[in-house]
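Following up on my earlier thread - several people asked me to post the actual chain instead of describing it. Fair enough. Here it is, all 137 residues.
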Amino acid sequence: MLKKLIWAAPVAAVLALAAAPQFAGATSPVEPPAKAKPAKQCFWARNANGFAAPDDRTLNVRVGVREVFQFEMFGPCHEIDWAHQIALRSRGGSTICTGMDAEVISPSVLGPQRCMVRSVRKLTPAEIAALPKGARP
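Reply from S.P.:
Thanks for posting it. Predicted structure:
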């Protein structure tokens, strides 16, 4: 009986030490809390109802009543700042969330031009209020 107890104590100690790092890492107060990912801010392309282009690389699109999304183009989209109408084409789905989701089609003297979008971001109410009159859709 004594031999069984002598072997049981070291085995229990080894098992306790093997399990300790698993529990210590899981509840360590030193680890920083996981950052929450920002929610994707998407919109349906069909809900766009106005636009303004302050230059040939930036397009502000009004969606609904209060939302404005700012598109940054990969390159210059010639004459978009003079266009009276444009088309938004959603690539790969019916919503636009990132630049790769959208394509802007704008009329030009040589026919419709397709402008690839680099990034899309939703403007805050303060940013919308700060837009100059010509850049506000």
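Strands lie at 43-44, 48-55, 58-63, 67-73, 87-90, 95-96, 102-106, 113-122. That should answer part of your original question.
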